[in-house]
């Protein structure tokens, strides 16, 4: 296959300092002459393979994960092709370094690690000039993806004020095939309630308590309207918004633009895929499940809504009947009618249980998780609480006593906050449990000595594909049916459907090919339901998607004053 040719208008130091076009020592002799690089590079021309080997050797000299994160961040600022190629070749090893869990540490120390700005920073004190700032960064660019965050709820570490969501954009390109030049990470700096940041003299964000109410809404709305005005076919990804805003903002904009919240919809979609794989093993239906969700924040509620909507769509039951399949528990206990109104957000009310169901517990005080398990006899137990060890031996065995293959998903991140170690859940159920976790865990031993691979219920197995499918189809929205189509495609790839004692989800090392299948399914659904902005036939989608995939390869450059910059 011939090397693609690209006409480029920059040269000399400028091209060496541009990570999109820089090849470093891989510039050919002809390119060095054409682009004024003679004498600016060592003599020898290296292949991409040689550059990768050198970079990997350098990476291994870093003693800590945060040191490796910083090294890779520096590489990204220098050479995109080398950066993404290195990550692709060491996917399982390096994704935890540039994404969860190490990225959380990098964001927590963002102000002290800061070296170079990345993306777009929109800050409330400058809100009157927001459009000018927006256009300054986006002018001349064809942007398909905006990843925006107000950093109020960074997983596991909370409010970080000005933490940028660039890692999410990287995963979209690394695993989803999205051209990094067509994505933009956006920080919406609306202050912080993190006292340590407010007192930190090196904090780089706006040192002010976090905005609420109308000022906050107007600020976010101004940004969203700029995206809609200037990039109407783009995908707007909401990341790490707090529980008071995440669902509310998603509902506000989802019918007017292609918006997506990974904490809600991505978590819900990958959990739906895991559950569909599990019920493929148990030979049951989604609407047959009795589901306890322990942790009713954005992730837990997002999972409940995604599973409920799938029941309505796939099993043709009413929303009310689907709601009755769920029992949600948060730090105030079981979500039920008699809880004080301030404990039950509006978006939780649909899942509130009637007090009459729990009369026998009224005199005994708080209803525990064990109480709910014994009464409900759940088929599925999902944890999104960050309450380490909440799924005790007694809880797990009480569930297994009433269920032949209990479905247990302790999804909290990082691993130290998981509701139950999957090895323990496997042992306590004599290998009967069908397991998926939010963090990677080693295999557990089955009673027959076989390794049971613990599925990693990682959003990155699905959200890049959901986003890529929406982008290439130029869908006007990201509909529930598009998400369900992607989740069903992921579930169809489950190893457990061939061997019931195998993992519920594909190996994370296969994430790029898995996400491509998800993207095809999402785009096909958009075309079928008429929300797509492209004039494609459904049978054309797969080939069109292949044409749109970005891959980290060095193109042949020709100097042209009218070329790309």
UniProtKB/TrEMBL annotation:
GO molecular function: malate dehydrogenase (decarboxylating) (NAD+) activity; metal ion binding; NAD binding
UniProt-annotated binding residues for (S)-malate: 413, 458
All residue ranges annotated as the Malic enzyme N-terminal domain in the record: 76-254
GO CC field: cytosol; mitochondrion
NCBIfam families noted in UniProt: PRK13529.1
Entry cofactors: Mn(2+); Mg(2+)
Keyword Oxidoreductase attached: yes
The UniProt record lists the keyword Transmembrane helix: no
Family of the protein in this entry: Belongs to the malic enzymes family.
Cofactor note: Divalent metal cations. Prefers magnesium or manganese.
Organism: Gymnopus androsaceus JB14
Active site: 99, 168
Alphabetically ordered keywords of this record: Metal-binding, NAD, Oxidoreductase
Protein name as catalogued: Malic enzyme
One GO biological process term: malate metabolic process
Residue sites binding a divalent metal cation per the record: 239-240, 263
